[in-house]
């Protein structure tokens, strides 16, 4: 029952943060795109493109939050939690595109070497205002994202934190552009912003695909599972252990070996105890499947899963 409440909280938080960040970013993006164009600053324009990407991201988040909220069905027996990961993946591609475009146009200006006017002073003011606005939005999303453990909200908060660094760089760049009266510096900052946007995109891409391909960041969860099995003396040789995340909760499969002479009742009891122990070790469990084999049973092939020996070899890193 606790999980149901938690999921509803998460869905609601996803919708609220989406609307807030969308409205905030739309205002900032419009201001920077307009000022960037009017004042003739590539750096502010790049910053505006980045915020525009954030508005599109927020739109995706709203659509994802509606889909994720649907209950499991015959067609989607695991529910639709992974739609969040797919949405994050799409998001990373959009950010990558925005960064690539900005990098290309800034490099174009530097390479062409054409004479350019100094950007207008208003560029400085809009950048300072944007830093304050984004800091507020990022802080808000980190707080909510951590509370409801949503990878999408935290990814978006991290992206906004990156925006603050971007706008900070733009501010410093503009300062030197004015002081040194060197308009080309503005395009150089535009390049740097483009590269930074691309870096953020790659990080978000790797995060979202890891969960989509059922990968885990470290071997910690496996160590916990083996510890849990070890506390049941009748359960031997845990193997074929597979743990993957579904909407932030662990789906765990494992094989254990029991004395072949045990009754089905007794074997089931032991399997239940293994499950209970795992639930007490691992936070947020989606489901656990325990497959029972007679002691000494050898598979013809061992094509998947983790064994304790594998953890020892890699020092806990999966
Ligand atoms: Zn087995």
How would you portray this structure in words?
- It is a single chain.
- The longest helix has 38 residues, at 2-39.
- The chain contains nine helices and three strands; from the N terminus they run αααααααββαβα.
- A three-stranded mixed beta sheet has the order 1-2-3, covered by helices on one side.
- The two termini are 32 Å apart.
- It is elongated, with a radius of gyration of 25 Å.
- Residues 1-5 have low confidence and may be disordered.
- The protein is 68% helix and 10% strand.
- By secondary structure, the chain is mainly α.
- Helix 5 (151-180) runs antiparallel to helix 6 (184-212).
- The chain has helices at residues 2-39, 42-68, 83-112, 122-148, 151-180, 184-212, 220-230, 264-281, 308-314; strands at residues 236-246, 249-258, 285-294.
- The protein folds into two domains: 2-212, Cation efflux protein transmembrane domain (Alpha-lytic protease prodomain-like); 220-314, 2-Layer Sandwich (Alpha-Beta Plaits).
- Helix 8 (264-281) links the parallel strand 2 (249-258) and strand 3.
- The structure holds zinc ion.
């Amino acid at each position: 029952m606790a999980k149901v409440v938690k999921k509803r909280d998460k869905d609601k938080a996803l919708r609220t943060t989406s609307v807030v960040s969308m409205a905030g970013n739309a205002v900032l993006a419009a201001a920077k795109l307009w000022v960037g164009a009017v004042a003739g600053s590539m750096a502010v324009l790049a910053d505006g493109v980045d915020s525009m990407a954030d508005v599109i991201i927020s739109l995706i988040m709203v659509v994802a939050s509606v889909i994720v909220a649907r209950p499991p069905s015959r067609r989607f027996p695991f529910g639709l939690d992974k739609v969040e990961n797919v949405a994050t993946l799409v998001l990373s591609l959009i950010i990558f595109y925005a960064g690539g475009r900005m990098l290309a146009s800034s490099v174009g200006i530097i390479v062409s070497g054409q004479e350019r006017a100094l950007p207008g002073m208003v560029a400085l003011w809009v950048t300072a205002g944007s830093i304050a606005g984004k800091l507020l939005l990022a802080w808000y999303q980190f707080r909510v994202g951590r509370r409801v453990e949503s990878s999408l909200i935290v990814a978006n908060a991290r992206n906004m934190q990156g925006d603050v660094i971007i706008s900070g760089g733009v501010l410093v760049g503009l300062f030197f552009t004015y002081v040194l009266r060197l308009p080309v510096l503005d395009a150089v900052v535009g390049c740097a912003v483009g590269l930074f946007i691309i870096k953020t995109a790659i990080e978000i891409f790797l995060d979202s695909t890891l969960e989509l391909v059922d990968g885990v960041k470290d071997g910690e969860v496996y160590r916990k599972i083996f510890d849990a099995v070890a506390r049941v003396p009748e359960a031997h040789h845990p193997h074929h252990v597979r743990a993957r995340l579904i909407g932030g909760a662990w789906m765990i499969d494992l094989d254990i070996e029991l004395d072949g002479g045990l009754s089905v009742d007794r074997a089931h009891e032991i399997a239940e105890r293994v499950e209970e122990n795992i639930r007490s070790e691992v936070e947020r469990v989606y489901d656990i499947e325990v497959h029972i084999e007679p002691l000494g049973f050898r598979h013809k092939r061992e094509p998947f899963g983790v064994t304790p020996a594998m953890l020892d070899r890699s020092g806990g890193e999966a």
